Amino acid sequence: MRTFISPVKIITGVGSLSRLPDEIKAFNATRVMIFADPGVLKAGILDSLTRILNGINLDYTIYSEIQPEPPLPKGDQAVAALRDSQAELVIGIGGGSCLDITKAAAVLCKNDGTIADYLNLTGTKELTDKGIPKILIPTTSGTGAEVTDIAVFSLKATKDVLTHPYLLADTAIVDPELTYSLPPKITAATGIDALTHAVEAFISVNASPLTDLLSLEAIRKISSSVRTAVWHGANRAARSEMSYGSLLAGLSFYNAGVSGVHALAYPLGGHFKISHGESNAVLLPYVFDFIWPACLDKMQMIAEALGVPTVGLTKGKVALATVACFQEMVRDVGLSLSLQDYGIRREDIELLAKDAIKQTRLLDRSPMPYTLNDVTRIYMNAWEKN
């Protein structure tokens, strides 16, 4: 038996941001706070949103003290700002970190304590109040944060999450137009992040027929369009495919979960401040090179969705060809396949492995169990690659 959960409402399509006034009216909100990351301000994307709000004479304030891979103090600062604003509705527009902070603030503003009190691994409190309504609007095609109840925060050595159904968006607006100005590197990192969500959800022990359908379609859309979106960003068809692919992957991984790639990626972000998308990209082929013997049939289906030739090949060779396809895709979008390129030394591997093996929430979803030696070997394979 499986349960499928999603936000109350998802609005998609080119120009869907224009639906924002109707959504605000549905919440009867007269005072709104907007969370927007600095990149959204710099790119002028926020102007599109504020023009809409000015057109309906809405009282709003803008909060932009947001950074990628946010540490706990940044999250608590956002919570305090939302509490002080007395807003009745919060709108998050930006990348995954911005949306994560928006979700956390919308809920925590009506609960006691700090974010640390509610963290998955170490928190001691339970959320008791749903908070205020939230509308989430992604400006990248990768994180899927607009359709999950997860908010990720950086700790000194690794990452931890808030996760509770209260964090789900009341409305998610996914407008491909908002991704048109993304630079190549961010397009690449978020695109491979979305692919990772899709493939990890597909092989998860918690996968269902519904999440499998979403995952496979996400893999098809992302793999066929990510190179074009990275190197020819003005191609609107590719941007739309990436936007939809990311949304489908988000819905899938929220319900089925991600596993080994993300578990090993968290310490890279925690210790070395490598972006989440790049952390996933550099590990994706090596993790799947380890787990493929435990999911041969699904590797075959992933290969077909990727367009990997499979005729006449054994299941094992198909799996290896799929791993090679992951490597080629990461390389083609300009990202690294070597931990050494991120300044990681051989002597750092032990520390990374000890932190990654603690991510049991993620590793327990893998079709292949992990030992500390397994995790160490995967890191070493990614480190030795030149």
From TrEMBL:
| Protein keywords | NAD, Oxidoreductase
Which intervals hold domain Alcohol dehydrogenase iron-type/glycerol dehydrogenase GldA?
7-176
Listed InterPro entries: ADH_Fe/GldA, ADH_Fe_C, ADH_Fe_CS, Alcohol_dehydrogenase_Fe
Q: Give one GO term, molecular function aspect.
A: alcohol dehydrogenase (NAD+) activity
PROSITE patterns with a match to the protein in the record: ADH_IRON_1
Annotated CDD domains: Fe-ADH
Stretches assigned to the Fe-containing alcohol dehydrogenase-like C-terminal domain = 187-383
Q: Tell me which Pfam families the record gives.
A: ADH_Fe_C (PF25137), Fe-ADH (PF00465)
Family from the record: Belongs to the iron-containing alcohol dehydrogenase family.
**UniProt cross-references to PANTHER family, sorted A to Z:** ALCOHOL DEHYDROGENASE, ALCOHOL DEHYDROGENASE 4
Q: What is this protein called?
A: Iron-containing alcohol dehydrogenase
